[in-house]
Design goal:
Number of strands: 11
Mean pLDDT: 95
Low-confidence stretches: none
Distance between the termini: 40 Å
Helix content: under 10%
Strand content: over 45%
Shape: globular
Radius of gyration: 13 Å
Length: 122
């Protein structure tokens, strides 16, 4: 079992930055692949980015490529999402996920956090 807790969400103006954190417990983080998904109001949850167990490989959705950066610190059992140049369309609840597959589908991940709200004002 892996428990995930996200933090760092909030309200920011367009063009601003936020850094989300996802703290894991119950299992060594280095044994699982990690990802961030987001769900905007009235829309399905969508893949944002993922990172391999060592952090050596990352994958991004086209909509965030060049603006968002995923990283992990296995010694702290924490994954981060640095979000720069934020746009109003980035407004969503952001979820951290953990699993054994390095994929972009919800089914690739077994464990989910409760989500943190990110709101970008224009």
């Amino acid at each position: 079992q892996v428990q995930l807790v996200e933090s760092g969400g909030g309200l920011v103006q367009a063009g601003g930055s936020l850094r989300l954190s996802c703290a894991a417990s119950g299992r060594t983080l280095s044994s699982v692949r990690m990802a961030w998904f987001r769900q905007a109001p009235g829309k399905e949850r969508r893949f944002v980015t993922s990172i391999s167990r060592s952090g050596g490989m990352t994958y991004y959705a086209d909509s965030v490529k060049g603006r968002f950066t995923i990283s992990r610190d296995n010694t702290k059992n924490t994954v981060y999402l640095q979000m720069n140049s934020l746009k109003p369309e980035d407004t969503a609840v952001y979820y951290c996920a953990a699993g054994q597959n390095f994929g972009s589908f919800e089914r690739d991940y077994d464990y989910w956090g409760q989500g943190t709200q990110v709101t970008v004002s224009s």
